[in-house]
Amino acid sequence: MAAETAIGAHQQRGRVLWKLSRWSVVLVLFPLAAKWFWLSEVTCHFRPELALILSALGLAALLLRHPKQALALTLLAACSGWRTARLYLPTEHPPAVGSPLRVASANLLWGEDSMGGLTRWLQADQPDLVFLAEVDLERLRTIETLGNLGYEHQLIWPPTNKWTRATWGRALISRRPFVRARVAGPQSRIMDVSLEHERRELRILGAHPMRPGRSHRIRMGDETLSALGQLAAESANVIVIGDLNLTENTPRHWNLLEQASLTDSRMGRGRMGTWTVRVPIIGLTFPFLRMPLDHVLLGEDLTATERWLGSNIGSDHLPIAADICWTE
After folding, report:
1. CATH class (in words) of the domain with range 96-327
2. How many CB atoms lie within 10 A of CB 73?
């Protein structure tokens, strides 16, 4: 009787694991519809977490002596997490030539007083050029004073005489003079500047596409990303930087890299999550679910010798920074 009970319990666990495997197929495949459905776009960002859960279930199935279910769950975990796993694999970066240019990006979180933290971070990390997203009217007044820290060259959009308390602005500030500076793309969402580095012209494109959620946001974000890819594809001496509202698991991220022959500066360095997932209703934050929405992407003539996360500046995003050099 005891043996029959044990066999029955084993079979029941096996059926439960097969049901979990079938539902997991749906969860793994649903994000692939991100090109057409905004909800699928959002779920793309959680594919690494899904991979960890499926890996744990696969291990549990193996320990419970259900090898077929363990294999199925492990394969589903690999399908969900392989793009993120690639970021951790050792990567041979092209040889660097000359001194680095330190670039950085920070999302200030509109409506929050993050300028004190930003100033301390700038003084600590000393970037040469910084892209700033979600700038409001109060923060604009402070940004204009950052010339005292050496950031005398500033491209601010919209023009300062058109700002209101409802403006969501952007700024690109630099310690080096711009050779050229303009705004481009739909709704002027892309900041396009060039400066001289090591006696060669270097182009920087800073952008903050519309965040995912709702079909009209996806459409606006797609328009910005398409224009960004077209501009970046014009030359190999380009840095794309900013809160792109993308992770490595979204088709829009893959398309941007392919369209402009860009390299993700995180390769070989890990995921480097920047945006802290929050549940506003209950006031909880989940730092272990930080999503890498902020990026430094490089054209073929450039390589990153260092890439890191900055300190907390009082925003829901951590800033990012990278040292960029010419390749041989």
Report:
1. alpha beta
2. 26
* 105-126 exposure pattern, b = at least 16 Cβ within 10 A, e = fewer: bbbbbbebebbebbbebbeeee
Indicate the burial class of 295 (C-beta count within 10 angstroms; 0-12, 13-18, 19 or more).
Answer: buried
pLDDT in tens, 124-174: 999 999 999 999 988 888 888 888 899 999 999 998 889 888 888 999 999
DSSP-assigned letter for residue 171: E
Cα angle at 134 between 131 and 139, to 5 degrees? 90
Task: Delimit the domains of the chain by residue range.
Answer: 2-86, 96-327
Question: pTM for the whole thing?
Answer: 0.91
Q: Are 290 and 70 in contact (CB under 8 A)?
A: no
pLDDT tens track for 22-81: 888 888 888 877 777 777 888 888 899 899 999 998 898 888 888 888 899 899 999 999
Give the H or E element holding residue 38. Answer: helix 38-44
